[in-house]
């Protein structure tokens, strides 16, 4: 029996269970409104390492180790890792996870990578190709600034449309069995690349909002649902500007999600006291918010069903310097309480 639903979604005949997770963040994230929920808050932005890239690798290593420990598992219990980050050639993932000595799929979906990893991990488990997989993503403010924008020493002024890359890593264990599970994944909607012609790399919310709208519309169509079928519809890091654009775009299609909508990038920082402009961003943003905060709402049954929708801006220093636009992509994951 096919599990395909509509043109771009999968409805799992048998749910995939999220056994446990872990979140590790930096000092700034630990000063925000979600501080009480994170597993670990690091005071040292270098995390005891020699450079920013090594620090981000350490984030992934520790997040995976912590998730396994919380679940009472070891690396021998995991068949595959699905991992990604924002750095060139995925060096945060490769150098951070090699010690686990496990088969690894390296993924790049920009800041949507958490959704991509959970989607592919769920397909693998549901299809019977693995009993347990580990999904992990990360980002680091300093390593991202160094690669995509300006060295921190330059001290450039940031426009109000800019987002603040989250220093953090979230790791998730997916299983075929419900034993000790925290929530279940019942379906996914895979996004397409959507290019709205945005060329401002400091306004990624505007670049990603059309892709998020496209996935949400596909999800509603493929599953025959409306906004009210979800307790929350949660994007990864559109920020304040992307939020407005997304809501407006969906209203033109006849859907008002304003009552259900929230954004991880808006939730993770306090805009009044933390000077983070349009909000948070980065691969780690949606991952740590899901692990630390969103899952708690499902575990407590305060929420029954959410559409988790990490969003990504598909640019590089090469493409931007060549004058190309910034395409967007998003990946939807349906999570439900047990």
Give an overview in words.
The protein folds into 2 domains: 4-175, Stage V sporulation protein AD (Peroxisomal Thiolase, Chain A, domain 1, 3-Layer(aba) Sandwich), CATH 3.40.47; 185-336, Stage V sporulation protein AD (Peroxisomal Thiolase, Chain A, domain 1, 3-Layer(aba) Sandwich), CATH 3.40.47. Helix content is 34%, strand content 24%. It has 11 helices and 15 strands. Helix 3 (91-97) links the parallel strand 4 (80-84) and strand 5 (104-107). The chain is globular, with a radius of gyration of 18 Å.
List the helices and strands and how they pair.
Blueprint: E1 4-5, E2 9-25, H1 27-30, E3 40-41, H2 52-71, E4 80-84, H3 91-97, E5 104-107, H4 113-126, E6 132-139, H5 141-148, E7 164-165, E8 168-175, E9 183-190, H6 204-223, E10 232-235, H7 239-251, E11 261-263, H8 264-267, H9 271-274, E12 280-281, H10 283-299, E13 305-309, E14 311-313, H11 317-321, E15 328-336
Parallel strand pairs: 2-3, 4-5, 4-6, 7-12, 10-11, 10-13
Antiparallel strand pairs: 1-2, 2-8, 2-9, 6-8, 9-15, 13-15, 14-15
